[in-house]
């Protein structure tokens, strides 16, 4: 095992997870501790429940993007991209961390076959769309900054190397699982000797460490937006004159 | 394709709006402001440091500022939602483009990426030139209408960014002549237009005679009563240019026989602090609250004024509270009285009026006040004489008139007309399709801005208030 492989496969994972978790919590706590004025944008929220519904409709359906016809393509691309990411990440978490009866994954795989790769393809296509519109659309190009491209390229790199690793270079998935679990129990075994896997794994770690310092924090911030959350209970203001 | 839809085919023209710069504040007005809240006059070298210190303070004390600086992904959903972008096509007038002007500075001085990688991370050094050419110029091209926030997946509200930028600019001694002039008048005389008490008394005398002539009714117009149940605070423009709207309020209040009064000390509901800084907003609102306390008012009723309603609805309790009275907008008041059956109308008096309603931005997006004015209009107009504009130009998606946010000033007239284009195109549609001849705009800034906009874009329509029509149709017996 070379020095670089050892670093990527044995030490960096711990650093990356630490940076991601501590960084993410630090950012959320910092937002949480900053006083918030009630600046609700109407209509919608007149109670906490409505505020919650509003926030969830944004998180799950990207509802505000549907307010303008010109944003429908962005909605479709962005929504599929995020749903794809959500399914993929959930799949990874399930596979590595949730114990399932023996044979479960084999039967899932048998049932849907290679369709599982469709999710990766959807992310790739929509990710390319998001990247291309930044380059092709002059309005979006002018508001884009370098980190916007970096994030998309990182994600595309992760997805493509992931597809490559499972479909082309056929990494030993059972060993990958064994390796990840060894990292979890703090007694790491050598990582799979597969270039696509190492690339995939390394890019994931880069993204994880970049996450708390980047715009990717919208994943946490969307839950805290003052204009969406806040609601006005009836205080001194009244709608009926008595 | 209609002219309205045509408008959304934009192509960016960088620097197109750089020439529209508001005049800087005059010393005499700054002197007045300084007696109420500190207003520094730093040297060029100090400006940068002061701006950054204030920005740092603001992001730490307002979650909206910190969060909105952090989480924008630059998806561009907001770009075509800004009337100033549609009008000027300057990318720095797109909500995200405008916010990026401040974000660049925020990144450079307050984030790790910006400190380490500078321009590559989308950061920019703050120089006295950047303060003037970018921050001052473009943050005084935002009307804080908050339309962009409706279309943003994260609800990013550019008004919050604009307010923070303006507040930090003020710290660096940069403010506009128009806004400081208006605030100085409020502090010294009591209202935006600088109408002193004797002139106010005169006006009210005239109005009383006018009402007698027009409607044959003797009304009471109390001013500075020592005790009253209701303090009515109108925008001062209603005493001066929108007298028909004023007559509407007075007729309704007299018809109901309530115990009410105007005040010469609190003779202005408009609150330009909203366009300038939270502390000014608090200081201006304090005048109304002081009078309400003094006269033992149970209710404060706000006249037809959009941004004032945002200042009241969203900030009075938060900045000046708790309040010893209840408050409502005159639209809510009149609608509530109609619902209770205490006001009756003869809509045939408005038979010649075919009206549409311009929702003031701050009623719709900050006041939850869109149904009441429609309810009133439907009662005072004959059946079918109220027609709404297309769905994407009303209610929560209403387009700004182009003159809000403290930008109602002559030196940027061209910009104001360009910004008014989306509204004008939406009105034009109902004028051409349905023969609408009256644009009801329950807001003092609209009443000053929209007639110019409609003329500029050749839309033959009269602009007026909602209570103008209430006055005409009100049954006195």
Residue runs with pLDDT of under 50 for 5 or more positions of chain A: none
Q: Tell me the number of strands of chain B.
A: 7
Helix and strand content put the structural class of chain A at: mainly alpha
By secondary-structure content and strand pairing, the structural class of chain B works out as mainly alpha
* Percentage of residues in helical conformation of chain A: 55-70%
Q: Could you tell me the strand content of chain A as a percent range?
A: under 5%
Mean pLDDT of chain A: 91
- Name the assembly state: heterodimer
The CATH architecture of one domain in chain A comes to Up-down Bundle
Characterization of the model:
The complex is a heterodimer of chains A (242) and B (477). Chain A has 242 residues and is an all-alpha fold. Chain A has a domain of 157 residues: Up-down Bundle (Fumarate Reductase Cytochrome B subunit), CATH 1.20.950.20. Chain A has eleven helices and no strands. In chain A, helix 3 packs antiparallel against helix 5. The N and C termini of chain A lie far apart (81 Å). The mean pLDDT of chain A is 91. Chain B is mainly alpha-helical and 477 residues long. Chain B has 23 helices and seven strands. In chain B, the strands form two sheets. Chain B has a four-stranded parallel beta sheet with strand order 2-1-3-4. Chain B has a three-stranded parallel beta sheet with strand order 5-6-7. In chain B, strand 6, helix 22 and strand 7 form a beta-alpha-beta unit. In chain B, helix 4 packs across helix 10, helix 8 crosses helix 10 and helix 17 crosses helix 19. The mean pLDDT of chain B is 94. Chains A and B meet through helix 1, helix 6, helix 7 and helix 11 of A and helix 3, helix 4, helix 6, helix 9 and helix 16 of B.
């Amino acid at each position: 095992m070379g020095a670089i492989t050892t670093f990527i496969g044995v030490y960096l994972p711990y650093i990356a997870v630490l940076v991601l978790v501590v960084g993410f919590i630090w950012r959320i706590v910092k937002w949480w501790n900053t006083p918030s004025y009630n600046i609700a944008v109407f209509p919608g929220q007149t109670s906490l429940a409505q505020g919650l519904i509003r926030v969830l409709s944004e998180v799950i359906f990207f509802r505000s993007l549907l307010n303008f016809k010109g944003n429908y393509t962005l909605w479709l691309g962005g929504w599929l991209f995020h749903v794809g990411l959500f399914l993929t990440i959930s799949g990874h978490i399930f596979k590595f961390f949730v114990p399932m009866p023996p044979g479960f994954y084999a039967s899932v795989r048998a049932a849907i076959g290679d369709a599982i790769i469709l999710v990766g393809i959807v992310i790739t296509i929509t990710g390319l769309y998001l990247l291309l519109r930044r380059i092709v659309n002059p309005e979006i190009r002018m508001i884009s900054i370098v980190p916007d491209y970096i994030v998309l390229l990182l994600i595309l790199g992760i997805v493509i190397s992931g597809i490559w690793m499972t479909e082309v270079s056929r990494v030993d998935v059972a060993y990958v699982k064994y390796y990840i679990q060894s990292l979890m129990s703090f007694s790491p075994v050598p990582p799979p000797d597969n270039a696509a896997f190492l690339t995939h794994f390394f890019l994931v770690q880069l993204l994880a460490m970049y996450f708390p310092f980047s715009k990717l924090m919208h994943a946490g911030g969307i839950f805290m937006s003052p204009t969406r959350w806040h609601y006005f209970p009836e205080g001194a203001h009244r709608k009926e004159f008595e | 394709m209609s002219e309205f839809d045509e408008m959304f085919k934009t192509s960016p023209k960088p620097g197109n709006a750089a020439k529209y710069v508001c005049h800087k504040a005059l010393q005499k007005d700054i002197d007045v402001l300084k007696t109420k809240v500190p207003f520094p006059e730093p040297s060029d070298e100090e400006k940068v440091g002061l701006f950054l210190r204030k920005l740092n303070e603001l992001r730490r004390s307002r979650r909206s500022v910190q969060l909105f600086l952090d989480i924008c992904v630059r998806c561009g959903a907001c770009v075509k939602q800004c009337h100033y972008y549609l009008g000027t096509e300057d990318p720095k007038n797109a909500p995200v483009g405008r916010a990026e002007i401040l974000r660049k500075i925020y990144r450079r001085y307050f984030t790790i990426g910006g400190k380490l990688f500078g321009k590559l991370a989308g950061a920019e050094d703050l120089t006295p030139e950047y303060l003037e050419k970018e921050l001052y110029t473009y943050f005084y091209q935002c009307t804080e209408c908050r339309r962009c926030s409706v279309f943003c997946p994260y609800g990013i509200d550019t008004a919050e960014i604009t307010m923070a930028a303006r507040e930090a600019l003020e710290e660096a001694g940069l403010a506009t002549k128009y806004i400081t002039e208006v605030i100085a008048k409020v502090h010294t005389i009591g209202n935006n237009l600088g109408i002193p008490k004797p002139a106010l008394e005169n006006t009210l005398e005239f109005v009383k005679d006018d009402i007698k002539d027009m409607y044959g009714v003797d009304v009471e117009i109390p001013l500075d009563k020592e005790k009253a149940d209701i303090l009515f605070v109108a925008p001062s423009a209603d005493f001066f240019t929108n007298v028909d709207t004023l007559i509407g309020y007075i007729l309704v209040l007299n018809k109901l026989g309530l115990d009410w009064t105007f005040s010469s000390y609190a003779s202005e509901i408009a609150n330009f602090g909203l366009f300038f800084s939270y502390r000014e907003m608090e200081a201006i609102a304090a005048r109304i609250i002081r009078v309400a306390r003094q006269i033992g008012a149970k209710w404060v009723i706000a006249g037809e004024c959009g941004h004032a309603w945002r200042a009241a609805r969203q900030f009075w309790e938060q900045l000046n509270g708790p309040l010893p009275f209840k408050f409502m907008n005159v639209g809510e008041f009149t609608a509530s009285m109609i619902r209770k059956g205490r006001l009756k109308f003869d809509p045939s008096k408005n038979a010649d009026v075919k009206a549409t309603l311009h929702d003031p931005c701050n009623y719709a997006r900050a006041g939850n006040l869109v149904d009441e004015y429609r309810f009133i209009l439907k009662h005072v107009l004959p059946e079918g004489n109220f027609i709404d504009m297309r769905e994407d130009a009303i209610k929560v998606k209403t387009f700004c008139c182009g003159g809000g946010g403290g930008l109602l000033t002559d030196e940027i007239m061209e910009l104001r007309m360009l910004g008014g284009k989306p509204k004008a195109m939406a009105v034009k549609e109902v004028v051409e399709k349905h023969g609408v001849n009256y644009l009801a705009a329950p807001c003092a800034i609209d009443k000053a801005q929209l007639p110019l906009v409609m003329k500029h874009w050749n839309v033959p329509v009269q602009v007026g208030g909602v209570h103008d029509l209430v006055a005409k149709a009100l049954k006195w017996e």
